[in-house]
């Protein structure tokens, strides 16, 4: 079952098309990361999926409900953390969350308990009664995340969820979200510029560029899409003959780094076998200190796919192959 479906979703402002014929599905229980350059349409897309912005055309189904006809029902099962969040600075953290709990008609005893649990989970229990005006940016982001979860949502929409947090805070929030996903099966749809986090945190990734979805799949699927073959890093001791021998290499190699002690080079030959490489290293009497595979990371994939020249000759691609379970994916029951 799909938790989120967008069908030919569009948003235009006059002659400017912010989102262009966007179609994709997110399975229930997935952690889906939407990435793209600034101005690609990520926030606009998320706002349309949450029902806070009306699309110009297209259709959205969230949690089995049509957002055009059942937006109220959708808002009861989702949580939304926007990129820019407003606060009532004269309130303290507990008062702020209680205010939103009452908007969801959560009864007081349950609301009070949920609020204490949420403040503890986001690391604000010690600041529950401090005025929000004195919160740091990272603390406000934690409070906004607690607010997005006040109604125990089935689907969470998060726009830059760890913005303004220090590395420890980022790890704590990511762990909390993973626990929500694994323990309660919460579907998470997030947008972030922290591509390293997206690649490790999300089991499905969509790349948006100029309002169009240009790729959608697992990290391994995206590697295949850009022909991101596995490369091999070789580190040898630096000798007088090392560089000249490398220039006569039978492989497609690039010298990556040279120091007084060592030379790093990368083999980019798709047909190479490890045994063949090791035999050549022995033949040339290289002193090997490191040999390992390098897989193309999400940053490299992103830069390649959003390159104007590449994008000009490509069409939107959704990879339909079902990925193997990865971090963030709830196994089928």
Strand line-up of the largest beta sheet? 6-7-8-3-9-10
In the predicted model, the low-confidence regions spanning at least 5 consecutive residues are: 311-333
The chain-level structural class is alpha/beta
What is the chain-wise order of helices and strands?
EEEHEEHEHHHEHEHEEHEHEEHEHH
- Strand-residue proportion: 25-35%
Main beta sheet strand tally, sense and closure: 6 strands, mixed
Taking the alpha carbons of the first and last residues, their distance comes to: 12 Å
The overall strand count is 14
The CATH topology of the largest domain corresponds to Rossmann fold
**Count, helices:** 12
CATH homologous superfamily assignment of the largest domain: P-loop containing nucleotide triphosphate hydrolases
Look at the structure and give the mean pLDDT. Answer: 86
What is the highest CATH level, the class of the largest domain? Alpha Beta
Q: If classified by CATH, what would the architecture of the largest domain be? A: 3-Layer(aba) Sandwich
